[in-house]
């Protein structure tokens, strides 16, 4: 099968001929399932901000039941206060042993990872 592409003009006018077929016909054959709106702009899916450990971990069932009982808004407020308090405890611990800011930040990241694994952030 012979394939040829021809370019005409110097100002950007392109003429494409592939095996004698029209360019739009070629696109319709090779890309039958395109996600384009009428305006031609691609459709973007919304990013999902979801915890990958949702429902996993030892404490996840307790966290989910508590969230359902007291409501999502109030639960997130309490969770925020608990996280802030825990970060303060880590900061005070780092001050007492003489750890620098980089080590403190590493401990806070480690606490977050452990909280996800245990299900506290479900």
From TrEMBL:
<protein>
    <recommendedName>
        <fullName>Proton gradient regulation 5</fullName>
    </recommendedName>
</protein>
<dbReference type="GO" id="GO:0009507">
    <property type="term" value="C:chloroplast"/>
</dbReference>
<dbReference type="GO" id="GO:0009773">
    <property type="term" value="P:photosynthetic electron transport in photosystem I"/>
</dbReference>
<dbReference type="InterPro" id="IPR037497">
    <property type="entry name" value="PGR5"/>
</dbReference>
<dbReference type="GO" id="GO:0009055">
    <property type="term" value="F:electron transfer activity"/>
</dbReference>
<dbReference type="GO" id="GO:0009644">
    <property type="term" value="P:response to high light intensity"/>
</dbReference>
């Amino acid at each position: 099968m012979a394939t040829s592409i021809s370019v005409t003009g110097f100002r950007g006018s392109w003429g494409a001929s592939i095996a004698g077929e029209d360019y739009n016909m070629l696109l319709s054959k090779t890309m039958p399932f395109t996600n384009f709106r009428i305006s031609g702009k691609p459709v973007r899916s919304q990013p999902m901000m979801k915890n990958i450990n949702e429902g996993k971990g030892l404490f996840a069932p307790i966290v989910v039941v508590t969230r359902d009982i007291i409501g999502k808004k109030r639960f997130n407020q309490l969770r925020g206060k608990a996280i802030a308090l825990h970060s303060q405890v880590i900061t005070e611990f780092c001050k007492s042993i003489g750890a620098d800011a980089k080590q403190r930040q590493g401990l806070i990241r480690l606490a977050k990872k452990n909280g996800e694994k245990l299900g506290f952030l479900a």
